[in-house]
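Support case: user asked for a sample of complex input and structure output to validate their parser. Sending the pair below.
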Amino acid sequence: MKKLLSLGAVSALALAAAPAFAQDVTITNARLVIGDGSEPIEGGTVVVAAGKVVYAGPASGAPAGGTSVDAKGAYVTPGIFATVTTLGLSDVSAVSETEDSRAAATPFSASLDAATGINPVSQHILVHRVAGVTRAATALSPTGSIFAGQGAIIDLDGDASPIVQARAFQMVDLSENGARLGGGSRPAAHALLRAALREAQALTGKPGLPQTTEITKDDEVLLSRFDAEALVPVVTGKQKLYVKAERASDIRAALALKGEFPALDLVLVGASEGWLVASEIAAAKVPVIANGLNDLPDTFEELGATQSNAGRLVRAGVKVAINAASLQNPRRLQQAAGNLVALNRLPGAAGLSWGQAFAAISSIPADISGMGGKAGVLKPGALGDVVIWTEDPLEAGAVPTQVFIGGIKQDLTNHQTRLRDRYKDLDESQRPEAYDW
Amino acid sequence: MFADTKWRARAGALATLASAIALIAGATVADAKERDKKKGKDEEVAEAPALAAIKADDPVYPSTYKPYPGVATAIRGATVYDGRGKTIENGVVFMSGGKITAVGGPDTPIPADITVLDGKGKFVTPGIIDIHSHLGDYPSPQVDAHSDGNEATSPTTPEVWAEHSVWPQDPGFGRALANGGITSLQILPGSANLMGGRSVTLKNVPARTMQGMKFPGAPYSMKMACGENPKRVYGSKGRMPSTRMGNLAVNRETWLAAIDYANDPKAKRDLAKETLVGVLKGEILIQNHCYRADEMALVLDMAKEMGYKVTAFHHAVEAYKIADLLRENDVCSAIWADWYGFKMESYDGILENAAFLQREGACVVIHSDDANDIQRLNQEAAKAQAAGQRLGIDITDATVIGWLTYNPAKAMGIEQQTGSLETGKMADVVLWNGDPLSVYSRPEKVWVDGALMFDALNPKTRPVSDFELGQPGEGDVK
């Protein structure tokens, strides 16, 4: 059995009450993970002041300051940065009334803005906070168009302002699913994409009311003037364009878009067959949010899927984050990263080092999201998102004992922990369970 | 429940009627053979040729699985989890002739002329068993043409058999073997229907036909489903059931009709009712998809009302709320470690479900229902174990391995043959390259009936399905 630290092992002395403001904190005796790809530092110290990291490294160089927390040798890491997720956009995905990541009936597409729908106290946010996720790229799902709309970067502290950056990226689906949404074929999707980007180009530098013509088919609006307007920052490279693509040829087609629209700031999402075109992706300097463990030909666009995809891409020089959307839920990101480390002991497979794997769920997704140096990493100036863990955070059973977001110690209760507490025993001899709360 | 005596009476009546029926059609082969013995030369001309299906109780679509050749092998020096809660440090597992020959400590005698593997730093478990899979019925690639898991045209279809949908070329079988150490698995119909049909238990060996995988002697189960899925699927078609009370009503009517059938000596063969009667006779097990605690309690009462037993509740995310009831009724809970919140009836999923069940003394099975998770059932179990440990519920590693081996074998009715490392049982064995409850460990070797079906150190032992030949990534490490 792997030895876990019990919840009580980490001193909660000075942190029993959780003030809703940033407190200066010094965490000592940490197995410290910077998150930048380096391996853990034994006996490390993290100092957070005014909500920001001011020091992370060996104890010897640490400045004094704030409340002291003895990690007692536990792993201390930056918070996990989950990308791509729908955190905050739904309560129960199969209960359509609660589901705001999909909107098949809207006439709008690219202009949709995830930031307008985030519920900062969604149970999914609270559950994932307890799993060590502190920030997330949350995205709309393409349902009515190849354009999903604009995703947001959020924090998971549950306060009134979850939006770290609104409209951080646009998402377009050029996978099999996108072909269907675009009218039924890949050429149809590509034609719509090009038409939309050209409309956006035509609007560039023309502020004011949108002037473009709508693109319609059979009374259906494929691209409204507002959607074309929303693509102006994409075509000018001011907003990232996340492109969903799995098949090697679809990835090539996505990379080729830069030939026609040179300013595009592309990010590939999915890329199950990325390893087959790894050198081309590397040469194009396009980062990949890769499906972590998919190894089945679930579709004809994933025939080459393998768990070694991420490792092979990294070896080719590609910047790789793990795609939370390819997992049962985003709280499995650390487990997926651990599995990629395990591949190193499998002959013929390409894995990641421990440090690389952790970076693929922390600093790299943050960097891809435009938050390089600000999130997913414990370096001076970064946001004070710090997690203390029960055990090696890449083990499947690992959970945080303490979570700080922006220097604020987080409450770790939610619907699930309350159910857990209620059903610790089934004794109803005096009162029904409903009175146990 | 129908009276057992009446069942026998029916069989007797059938026998006396055999010759009469034979003249029409529908008599059995056995009946025909019996008749052949009696008939004299002068009868031959008068006898019309009989058309007959094999009798209902005789095996059909029988297993053609035969263990593949293996060599007598011993693993020495590994940590051994026997599947029934026992740990042997520095243990020996010896298999020969397709069976477990010996399991014990370092002094366990092994012959000199066999293959001996050094298990130092490694772990040995029984082959992993997934009680809830749709591999073959919902294979990869998941195109509509492959969607063969739900006969969603009637709320009760006990007459369909999952084995008749299994596509043995599903690449998922090979992934489950190589990455998950899966040696046996139960393929269930989906949950669109209240009664989805019969399951099939397979040995996880590549085969050209389903019969080549079919687990010899495994009992059938019938899949049932509570809750949202049946009422949604049929309610949306304007049919009953559209509510949970409708679910129960349709189930009860169906059981009553089956009892009438069983008691009717003149009843014509009915595939649906044959399955249901098999359940009532205790020959076919019930695997019941059911998330909510209150619905599981209703199902247990329905089973009492009709006279059958529920063997396992699947996807039982709320099992922890009625762990006592499940223990008292001797029902296993087949569960995920961390799925929650994706549908209303999964809203109360918690990480501690398995640990709470174990503490109450109820049976825990970790299942996948998923072509990806089946490759990591060991990790799912580790998650559930860790959740318990944080609350001070210490469950030994050896017990946790039982959630993936002996317990599912028991709930599938194959615990006499497999599911634990005990002398005389099938040599279904996994050698892990490290602690199987760690994310960093993978199966190094997997034996099915003593045949080495996967060896991580030998690329040619990776099974490649027909579908994968000549395609990107053929034979790649997956």
